[in-house]
């Protein structure tokens, strides 16, 4: 292989790996704090890319919600899930004989989705500047994380990892079906955020690539600062180390779970915004993208954030070279790399029955 081609493929792989790193970090975070192997992480990626696309271009032809013009389907999905969560919480609290608290909890849950719906209905966000649309996309997709945790995982917090994995499979199918309903079956490719091109010898570095590298690096640094310097970050670390001990110290596992799912949804939505200009995104495209982030997390044993980032870069580079040499089998090659890692970890750490 020509060295120039190898350098180009490496640069492309590092760009994809930077996005996979965000998903791998989110996967490690969720497993460490909640013991959930969150298969639907890729759905946040697809929702982020499609939400921004609909804000840019309007709804896809044939969508159930095309009469609402500029409004993304994620907005209605958020409102629906928030309404269900508010009804469940209010009913439970009402039965405990606390009607005022029931109303307060319901209003708290519905406040942000209602505000977003009113804002979008009254302001026609399709005409907003791109930066405002990006922020609106993050504001719409990120609250889906804690709501999914509330509906699917919170009451199963003490269940086994296998049970939580089965629930994750069900959540994945549910979100994929809802994605088809609210977005339609058409694909979208978003415009690049920066059209500039820079020549580095035989290589050409695009402005979009610089944004991907910069955003991923900045978020990783912010995560490190969050876990090392903030009280909430230290609380999440304590929950990851010992859930029972954290509970005895006054740290709520439910609050830690909601916060970790919020962060994972934000990272998924940001990954969707970054990957949207380089590939066409369908309602179900997030599954394969999220699965590659999961492969990177497995390289780290679902425990180490630095190793997850390194594994993600490796997955991106392997995918890039596989696309060039055997494009028909690139997915097979990428996912096959997980087998020796699993075998090595199985031999290194003999299986112990979960207590």
Helix content: over 70%
Mean pLDDT: 84
Shape: globular
Number-wise, the strands total 2
Beta-strand portion reads under 5%
Q: How far apart are the termini? A: 51 Å
Q: Work out the radius of gyration.
A: 21 Å
Characterise the protein shown here.
- The protein has 355 residues and is an all-alpha fold.
- The protein has a domain at 42-284.
- 73% of the residues lie in helices and 2% in strands.
- It has 15 helices and two strands.
- The chain has a two-stranded antiparallel ribbon with strand order 1-2.
- Helix 1 (3-34) packs across helix 9 and helix 1 (3-34) runs antiparallel to helix 13.
- Mean pLDDT is 84; it is low at 59-67.
Notable characteristics:
355 residues, mainly alpha, 15 helices, 2 strands, 73% helix, globular
Task: Provide a short characterization of the protein structure.
By secondary structure, the chain is mostly helical.
Give the topology.
Layout: H1 3-34, H2 41-57, H3 73-95, H4 99-123, H5 130-141, H6 144-153, H7 161-183, E1 197-200, E2 203-206, H8 207-229, H9 231-241, H10 243-248, H11 253-275, H12 286-299, H13 305-325, H14 330-336, H15 338-348
Antiparallel strand pairs: 1-2
